[in-house]
Every structure is written in C-alpha cells, then in structure tokens.
C-alpha cells in the first residue's frame, strides 16, 4: 500500500489520514506460543497499513530483507511503538522481555532496547480483557537507509508454563520522524 490512506477510529468512522512518509502498523494473523528462555522473533504477518511498502511481513529473508522487519528507505530518525499482549500467563511467569532490534544491513546489532516485566504482578491485571496482560513500549532510532527494525519476545517461567502472544492485542507501529540518521 502506498500514498495517503484513511484510518478508522474506535467507532469505525474515518478519523484522519496518514501521510506519504514511511510508516506502518502491523499485527499478528494468529496467536503464537513462545519458547521458554529463548528470544523469539514476533511474526508480524498482518499489515494494517504500510506506506512505502517497507515492512516485510513474511518469514522470507531473501533479497536483503530480514523476516518480519521494517527496512528504513531513507536515513533519519524513526519512532517505534508496540504493545505485546501475553495470554496464558500465570504465577509461574517470572519475567517477560520485549527486545527492539535495530540491525544494520549485515544484520549486526546497532541498538537494542528492552522492555522488562518481572512476572504478572508488574502488569495491570487483565488489562486487555480476556486474560491478556499487556506490555507497551516505545523508542526512537537514528537509522541509515537499509537498516532494519524488528521485535523479539522472551519469557522465563519458574515451572513448565507455556506463554502465548495474543493476535488480537499485539501491534507494532513505526514512522519516519525527521531527517538525519547516523
């Protein structure tokens, strides 16, 4: 999708437009289960919009693309925000981390930002409804053209618990803020 598009407000009515600068909002097509004690790339496979077509919403990393990531088309300051909705959480969850990955064109770390929650007591209980606990965070990154941004999630249980990322409560957004870059 490219150009100017409208977006819907809470009641479904058009509530504004999104300009032609690179920006995106992506989500999950279905929930997926995290592997304990291991960083897992969040598979943002559903685009709500992608102005400039710079988000790769596939598992393919061919052609210089990283799976499930945004590729900066021009140098500048980019802002990112996300909400990760965790479901199936219980008292065995001792830690949840979201890792913002800013990678250069050779997939080496440039900037890594963590959002850290120590178990369900740090969440607003059932904040998203339906037993989903939310973790929200934002950051900015000075990016060169061709650099990537993606998210990974991690959790640590005290037992054998599994943890899911909810498809209905998880989003990742990014937009071009200003010229510059590194």
Explain what the structure shows.
There is one protein chain. The protein has 182 residues and is an all-beta fold. The chain has a single domain (25-56, 70-178), classed as Jelly Rolls (Sandwich). The protein has no helices and 15 strands. The chain has strands spanning 5-8, 14-18, 23-27, 32-34, 40-41, 46-51, 55-56, 69-71, 76-87, 93-103, 109-117, 133-143, 148-157, 163-165, 171-178. Strands 3, 4, 6, 9, 12, 14 and 15 form a seven-stranded antiparallel β-sheet that branches. The chain starts with a strand and ends with a strand.
Summed up:
The protein is an all-beta fold and 182 residues long. 0% of the residues lie in helices and 52% in strands.
β-strand number: 15
Pick out the low-confidence regions: 1-16
Please indicate the count of domains. Answer: 1
Q: Structural class given helices, strands, pairing?
A: mainly beta
Approximately what portion of the residues adopt beta-strand conformation?
over 45%
Q: What name is given to the CATH topology? A: Jelly Rolls
Question: Could you give a short account of the major beta sheet?
Answer: 7 strands, antiparallel
Order of helices and strands: EEEEEEEEEEEEEEE
Q: For this structure, what is the CATH class?
A: Mainly Beta
Into which percent range does the helicity of residues fall?
under 10%
Distance linking N and C termini: 28 Å
The CATH architecture can be given as Sandwich
Q: Which radius of gyration do the C-alpha atoms yield? A: 17 Å
Give me some keywords for this one.
182 residues; mainly beta; Jelly Rolls; seven-stranded antiparallel sheet; six-stranded antiparallel sheet; globular; disordered N terminus
């Amino acid at each position: 999708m490219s150009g100017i598009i409208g977006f819907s407000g809470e009641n479904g009515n058009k509530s504004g437009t999104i300009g032609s600068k690179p920006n995106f909002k992506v989500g999950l097509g279905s929930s997926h289960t995290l592997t304990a004690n291991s960083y897992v790339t969040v598979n943002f496979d559903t685009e709500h919009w992608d102005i400039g077509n710079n988000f790769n919403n596939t598992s393919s990393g061919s052609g210089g693309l990283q799976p499930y990531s945004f590729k900066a088309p021009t140098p500048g300051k980019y802002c990112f925000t996300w909400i990760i909705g965790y479901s199936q959480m219980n008292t065995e969850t001792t830690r949840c981390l979201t890792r913002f990955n800013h990678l250069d064109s050779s997939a080496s770390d440039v900037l890594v930002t963590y959002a850290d929650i120590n178990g369900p007591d740090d969440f607003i209980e059932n904040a998203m409804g339906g037993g989903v606990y939310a973790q929200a965070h934002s950051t900015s990154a000075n990016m060169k053209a061709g650099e990537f941004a993606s998210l990974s999630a991690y959790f640590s249980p005290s037992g054998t618990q599994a943890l899911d990322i909810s498809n209905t409560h998880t989003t990742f957004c990014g937009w071009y803020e200003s010229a510059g870059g590194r």
